[in-house]
Design goal:
The chain has helices at 58-69, 77-81, 84-92, 95-99, 105-125, 130-135, 139-144, 157-168, 171-181, 197-209, 223-237, 279-287, 306-316, 332-340, 357-370, 383-398, 445-451, 457-466, and strands at residues 4-13, 33-41, 46-53, 183-187, 214-218, 268-272, 294-298, 322-325, 346-347, 407-409, 428-429. It has 467 residues and is an alpha/beta fold. A five-stranded parallel sheet has the order 5-6-7-8-9, covered by helices on one side. A three-stranded antiparallel sheet has the order 1-2-3. A three-stranded mixed sheet has the order 10-4-11. Helix 13 links the parallel strand 7 (294-298) and strand 8 (322-325). Helix 1 (58-69) packs across helix 5 (105-125), helix 12 (279-287) runs parallel beside helix 13 and helix 14 (332-340) packs parallel to helix 15. The radius of gyration is 21 Å and the shape is globular.
């Protein structure tokens, strides 16, 4: 049986700051970056993983990845695969590395990259895409694969097992359905703060033509500017003339749109402040955007301020505006508290902020128990490739529903991946089907050679031009 013999890490950075991609009220200068690892074995079996940053500091994460990956050297892969929950606990249990968290910050996202690489290796060894590997687990195997420490006051293993068994018999039906129609998506690419009004309008029209009916825009720098941009987007998504040929408006009062402030075509607008406000400021600012009828405000304040999010949700509820967060919730315990405090209407897991698939499964289980839909954060580099797997796991094996869920899609940097995600004509994610793609995160060697920091060919050329 293969043993892990080593690893390679790469600090890969893309110059997205040049075009304004990724700009928001908090993050105004983003070079989308991947702290990337490949786990090696004494066979041809490998595992690829990464975590996402926005530039400087990516090298620090790579250093932490190497420290975490060292714990796996010499380990038998089949022994690791046999109990991925136990393996996750082993990866988290180095006392000296734990001290610089614990379970948060650089060491936690580095552990996520390594855990994701191990899950990628596991899926490749079984010749299944990651989502298929996991949904084919028995309820017992799925529960055993999760991270359980510190969450038993929110959900027990027994509760999770009972929940999974109740929908086990209909997994095949849900798998067939999502393979046929795809997984619902929403688009953020039109809403970056750094874009001109003309670019916002053009990209919104393009997104509507592609079949999308959920749209998100960035807010928080200037309320009047946000209101103007929101009206531009609303004027397009609410106008049936821009719908694709043969497409009819959706019923805004249907079960899947009820409570989302959908417009006359059934289109939904969301807004995202990226943590820029204090609690009272968030409440007053968002009230001032009620005219553009957002479904929710995402990350209105500090990501680990659970009571702050609860206060904002309570204040905005009479205005019909919900609260979403999770992109920067640094572990399952923050999600546990957000759910227990009834602080969120939408749970937004991040495939790289949490410490890998095992911790994600824990959050999916808690969200299903509390009845809160999971709408993962994506975008960046590699995140869309990752999260379609997680949403499929949630729909097919855990929550059993995708009717009110939407998965973020941002059309950036997919060309650097061997098995990139894709969107169908209805604005939905296609289901990954390549049996050899694992977690879909393997990057082209040519992309690594071009954009590796600081000596990739792009960066050497950029330095030469500045000299």
């Amino acid at each position: 049986m293969p043993k892990i013999t080593g690893f390679e890490t790469h600090d890969v950075r893309f110059p997205t700051s040049l075009t304004g991609d990724g700009t928001d009220a908090m993050n105004t200068d983003c070079d989308y970056s991947s702290a990337y690892i490949t786990l090696l074995t004494d066979s041809e079996l490998v595992g690829h993983g990464m975590t996402f940053t926005i530039g400087r500091g990516n090298d620090i994460v790579c250093m932490a990845i190497r420290e975490v990956a060292n714990r796996l050297i010499g380990k038998d892969t089949e022994e690791l695969f046999a109990d991925m929950g136990k393996t996750w606990e082993f990866m988290m249990s180095d006392p000296q590395l734990r001290w610089i968290g614990p379970e948060k910050g650089v060491i936690h996202i580095a552990t996520g990259a390594v855990n994701n690489a191990l899950w990628d290796m596991y899926a490749r060894s079984r010749q299944k895409p990651l989502w298929k590997l996991v949904v084919d687990f028995s309820p017992e195997e799925l529960v055993r694969s999760a991270a359980w420490r510190y969450i038993s006051d929110a959900i027990t293993k027994e509760e999770a097992l009972d929940m999974l068994k109740k929908i086990e018999s209909t997994k095949a039906e849900r798998e067939a359905k999502v393979r046929e129609i795809g997984y619902p998506a929403y688009v953020t690419s039109a809403g970056w703060l750094g874009y001109s009004d003309e670019k916002v309008a053009r990209l919104t029209k393009e997104a509507v033509a592609m079949g999308f009916n959920h749209f998100k825009m960035k807010v928080g720098a200037d309320q009047a500017n946000d209101l103007r941009r929101g009206k531009i987007i609303r004027s397009i998504i609410d106008d049936p003339q821009y719908l694709p040929a043969g497409t009819h408006p959706r019923d805004p009062n249907s079960e899947d749109l009820k409570g989302k402030n959908a417009g006359p075509t059934g289109s939904v607008l969301m807004i995202d402040a990226n943590q820029v406000w204090d609690v009272p400021q968030a409440i007053e600012y968002v009230k001032g955007l009620e005219e553009i009828k957002p479904w929710f405000i995402e990350e209105p304040t500090a990501p680990d301020d659970v009571l702050g999010h609860a206060a904002i949700r309570k204040a905005l509820k009479p205005h019909g505006i919900g609260v979403a967060t999770g992109e920067h919730a640094h572990n399952r315990m923050v999600f546990k508290q957000l759910l227990q405090a009834e602080a969120i209407d939408v749970c937004q897991i991040d495939s790289c902020r949490l410490a890998g698939v095992s911790e994600v499964i824990s959050v999916l289980l808690m969200s299903a128990k509390f009845g809160v839909p999971v709408c993962p954060h994506a975008g960046g580099v590699g995140l869309c490739e990752y999260v379609i797997h997680l949403s499929l796991i949630d729909y097919i094996a855990i929550s059993g529903t995708m009717e009110r869920n939407v998965l973020e899609f941002v059309d950036h940097l997919h060309e650097h991946f061997i098995t990139p995600c894709s969107i169908n004509s209805k604005g939905r994610y296609n289901v990954p089907t390549n049996p050899l793609e694992g977690y879909s995160i393997e990057m082209f060697q040519t992309s690594i050679a071009e954009y590796e920091w600081p000596n990739g060919s792009y960066w050497l050329s950029a330095k030469g031009k500045k000299a």
